[in-house]
Amino acid sequence: MSAPEPPALVVDRHTVLATAALGALMLLAAVLVIVDAARLPDTSAVVGPAAVPMPVGVALGVVGAGLLVDSRRKLPRAGAGRPWQAHAALRVLGLVASLVGFALLLPVLGYVVTATALFVAAALLLDAPRDWRVLAWGWALAAVVFLVFDRLIGLTLPAGPWGF
Questions:
Q1: Where is the chain membrane-spanning (predicted)?
Q2: Which residues are within 8 A (CB) of 109 and not within 5 positions of it... i.e. 6 or more apart?
Q3: Residue 30 domain flag
Q4: Count of CB atoms situated within 10 Å of the CB of 40
């Protein structure tokens, strides 16, 4: 005897439409980024100026198309739901405050410290589990981005008083 199937989850129509709108914006941004990257002049350097924007544009396009396809698939079974989560406005204000703090503290504390704080604040505001792993992932992400841009690509990021 098999177990009964769980009832299908009702997806909020507002969320599906917002996801579709974000996907469409990402596709538009992808086209703009790819066109701009294609217009960059060629150089004799090993890594040319389009080395980063071109893959970013392609990634934007892939993710945007995926969001549109997912939204199209979910729209027929989408229903009315609660379009806002509890304290959504406070979360948005918290994210904006985190970005402003990042911009103000970046020259003083350096990229790795301020980016770690930004990533941790964003994760916590978006309901990540509150344990040491959030800080570890935030620091790891900030350190990898710093190493890739500062050391591999050669784009200098603010180092702060500790040299990173």
A1: 16-35, 47-69, 90-122, 134-153
A2: 160, 161
A3: yes
A4: 13
Instruction: Assess contact for 96 and 88: CB atoms under 8 A.
Output: no
Range of the domain at 23: 11-79
User: Does residue 40 form part of some domain?
Assistant: yes
**For position 3, what pLDDT does the model report?**
56
Contact by Cβ (8 Å): 63, 26: yes
- Six token digits for residue 10: 């009702």
**pTM of the model as a whole:** 0.60
CA distance 22 to 65: 10
pLDDT at 52: 81
Q: How far apart are CA 26 and CA 68, in angstroms?
A: 10
Q: What is the pLDDT of residues 12-44, one digit of tens each?
A: 888 888 899 999 999 999 999 999 988 888 877
Calpha distance 128→2 (Å, rounded):
35
